[in-house]
Amino acid sequence: MKYEKWSLGYWLLKQYIRFVDWIIHDKIILNGQAYIPKNKPILFAPNHQNALSDPMAILLHTRYQPVWLARADIFKPGIITLALRFLKIMPVYRMRDGKDQLAKNEKTFADSIKVLENNCALALFPEAAHSAKRQMLPHKKAVPRIVFQAEEKADNNLDIHIVPTGIYYSSYWKFNRSVLVNFGEPILVNDFLEAYNENPSAATLALRDALEKAIEPLTINIKSKEHYECFELIRAIYGKAFATKSGERNGFLNRFKTDQQLVKILDELDTSNNEKTEKICNAAKHFDTNVRKYGLRSWLVESYENNFWKLGLNKLLLLITLPVFAFGFVFNAIPFFAIDSIVRKKIKDFAFWSSFALVLGFTLFPIVYLIETWAISGWLPLWWHKVLFFISLPFAGKLAFRWYILLLKTIGRARLFILKAFRKQVWQSLKKQQEQLFDELNKLS
């Protein structure tokens, strides 16, 4: 297989997976696309936190058919290797694979050069592992080594552009999540070639550090290991209020930017005053525990104004759209819950949940849809009725899930209404806890 050649089969599969990806996500936001150069050899270098979802975020939302470099041990003989090659994934051999295997990298580098010479795109994770946390791992030397060796073998004529990329998810595994893909200003390998010719080791470290520095502003990177879970909780509880305080308008991208600022403030506090960090963390955990004790969420306590009217409007909307939910639920429930059950029971590392759900989803759902269309075909006399029914099923499923989310929010609002009406002391205590927590957090910025 010639990796640098455009593949029709790959393109067709990409269009299908792109549709599935749209169904899975609530929002898909691309930022900084203007930084992706045209007619230049490119190496995409994204952060890695969510297994297969990370490469999907790159290949589905750029015009390229990027060739990924992956560790060689995943290339098992037979159909797996054929599938990986079809997906334009090349093996990279490491010392742990055996010293005698390293010679095979010659072919990988030769193929990489062909990709770059044809102004196509390579892609590689600088961290070389996924963390399943909003926390960057230390970068390895793989990216610098590959681009330097590629330039060396091509007599320094490639002019490779490394595009630092940050991928952020509202949730790592939940259905209907949002994803943000941030592309940064390219790093030009040419700027490091002179240093590489003089001292390869020093230049490799310099490029590695420059890339790590370029990717960090494109991600949310909670540096504290001790208080990671607490800072994530504070971000969920206080993030909206902090964004409003910062003067930012509502929106996923704006919230990402203010969350970056908030995390930076919390990390600085963790470094300078551990005692105060512990105090704020304990207050956040105590508030969250008490809120959940009454079946609420922190956003309900924060946005309690006009709850009565919103409760009434939500109920009316749920009633009007109930038939839509029923249709979507009936024809999507079996594959949805089957996949959810399989993933939760069989996959121990939740960082792989969304990846396995995606693979199972784009294979199982169409099969179930075909069976369901066949099952009711007797009530659909015309062929285009059958086609229309089949096409409507994924959209109905997505609408049904949104109906379910609105139902959960409505139940939460009803609980809040009952709490305020019949247990005023409890409500006042919760509100006071939130105000005290927010006051302490407001003093940090």
Keywords:
9% strand, alpha/beta, eight-stranded mixed sheet, 16 helices
Explain the overall architecture:
This protein is of the alpha/beta class and 445 residues long. Strands 1, 2, 3, 4, 5, 6, 7 and 8 form an eight-stranded mixed beta sheet that branches. Helix 6 packs antiparallel against helix 7, helix 10 packs antiparallel against helix 16 and helix 13 crosses helix 15. The longest helix has 40 residues. The relative contact order is 0.10.
List the helices and strands and how they pair.
Elements: H1 8-24, E1 25-31, E2 42-46, H2 53-59, E3 67-71, H3 79-86, E4 89-92, H4 105-117, E5 121-123, H5 142-153, E6 161-169, E7 177-183, E8 187-188, H6 190-198, H7 200-215, H8 228-245, H9 252-272, H10 274-293, H11 298-302, H12 307-320, H13 322-346, H14 353-375, H15 383-422, H16 424-442
Parallel strand pairs: 1-7, 2-5, 2-6, 3-4, 3-5
Antiparallel strand pairs: 6-7, 6-8
